[in-house]
Amino acid sequence: MKKQILIVLTLMLAHLPLLAQNDAARAAKVDSTYAGRAAVDSTLAGKNIFQVLGSGPKQAAREGKIVIDQSQAVANAMSRHIASNARKSQTGYRIRIYFDNSQNARIKSEKIAAGFKSQHPGINVYRDYENPYFKVTVGDFRNKQDAQRFLNSIKGTYPSGFIVREKINFPVM
Questions:
Q1: Is residue 116 within 8 Å of 98, Cβ to Cβ?
Q2: 126 near 137, Cβ under 8 Å?
Q3: Which stretches of the chain score pLDDT less than 70?
Q4: Which residues make up the CATH 3.30.70.1070 domain(s) of the chain?
Q5: pLDDT confidence of residue 113
Q6: What is the CATH number of domain 89-169?
Q7: Closest CA to 112 of 130, 102, 131, 99
Q8: pLDDT at residue 70, as a whole number
Q9: Measuring CA to CA, which of 39, 44, 109, 165 is 20 to 30 A from 171?
Q10: Are 95 and 154 in contact (CB under 8 A)?
């Protein structure tokens, strides 16, 4: 187990100078006032990158693909690392669009959550009950500026919305 962790750490540290150079080049090109969100390649979502890139050497040469020559122990260590970190969270921001404790608060919170999901299908919706309040909270924002920007865009529909600091799920990369 220690050897596998050491191998993964060695591989990560070997690529650290390259990542630092890429970050510096990217920072020079990005406007400092608004960085925007990174584009997500939806064709790779949920797939094992080692299987996507790797194939037989002859077939890969014909198709112009990359061949990865690595031991199975590295692939197994990476799979375990991904599985163990799948449910981790970080502190971030969400927007509370509903907060009430009336008699019909449960039904109303269900309707608001369903309505928000239909209007904004890419944004996560969380319905909670914390005695005596029913709450509907939306989004997983890493920083307050992104949360504020989204709150401003939905303020017309949800005028009582406000930003709350909570544990959020890691946004999909």
A1: no
A2: yes
A3: 11-68, 86, 171-173
A4: 89-169
A5: 95
A6: 3.30.70.1070
A7: 99
A8: 76
A9: 109
A10: yes
